[in-house]
Amino acid sequence: MKLRFHAGKPLHEWTDEALVAAFRKKGNDAFYEVLFERYYPLVYGYCLGLTANREDSKDLTLVVFTKAYEQLARQAIKSFDRWLFTLARNESLTLLRGARRNALAQKKWWETQESDATFMENGAFRRLVYEQELEKDRLYQEGLQTLSPEQRLCLDLFIHDTLSYREIAEQTQLSLDQVKSHLQNARRKLKQWVASQTDKKL
């Protein structure tokens, strides 16, 4: 029988913070199930707004809640809703970037099938340049995982949504100084990550 009451109060009336704390302390999935039921429609709608694909959004939503379940057991979360939507955003953007890379790869492959003599003469060089660009993108994606959730969120809003510092602050509820700090630290960490990975190959 599912746990629906605890300490004399229905679980659906508990705050996010109380449910997270109880789940981490007791390890009872009933507390997490309430969070799942509370946020599933919201996360699905958020992913759908980013991907415009219902099936992808369903898959993404399950991935988000699976990762959230695993991470909640290992780390304390101060603001569950903000953290959850940051996770959803990162997963959605990863999917979209992968789709764009696949589309680009297909386009490049078809280009290599052209019989134009000039293209064939420079084909090897163009493939090399393309492979180098893919490698840079791979390093960038891996480097993103070294950033904090706040740094990734600010960076996504700044680069992909082209928001200003002030607009990012308004959307994330962070101060202007915090936004600037997160972006500066994200840039520094990414440069260090790419440099360290490049040095390993030399």
Structural topology:
Layout lengths: L4 E2 L2 E2 L5 H11 L2 H23 L2 H19 L7 H33 L4 H28 L4 H11 L5 H8 L3 H25 L2
Antiparallel strand pairs: 1-2
Protein described:
- The chain is mostly helical.
- The protein has 2 domains: 8-99, Rna Polymerase Sigma Factor, Chain: A, CATH 1.10.1740; 117-200, Winged helix-like DNA-binding domain superfamily/Winged helix DNA-binding domain (Arc Repressor Mutant, subunit A).
- Helix content is 78%, strand content 2%.
- It contains 8 helices and 2 strands.
- The protein has helices at residues 16-26, 29-51, 54-72, 80-112, 117-144, 149-159, 165-172, 176-200, and strands spanning 5-6, 9-10.
- It has a two-stranded antiparallel sheet with strand order 1-2.
- Helix 1 packs across helix 2 (29-51).
- The longest helix is centred in the middle third of the chain and has 33 residues, at 80-112.
- The termini are far apart.
Distance between the termini: 59 Å
Q: Shape, please?
A: globular
Number of domains: 2
CATH architecture of the largest domain: Orthogonal Bundle
Largest beta-sheet details: 2 strands, antiparallel
Kindly report the spatial arrangement of strands forming the biggest sheet. Answer: 1-2
Uncertain spans: 104-126
Using only C-alpha atoms, the radius of gyration works out to 21 Å
Q: Assign the structural class, choosing from mainly alpha, mainly beta, alpha/beta, alpha+beta, or little secondary structure.
A: mainly alpha
What is the ordering of alpha helices and beta strands? EEHHHHHHHH
CATH topology of the largest domain: Rna Polymerase Sigma Factor, Chain: A
Number of strands: 2
Number of helical elements: 8
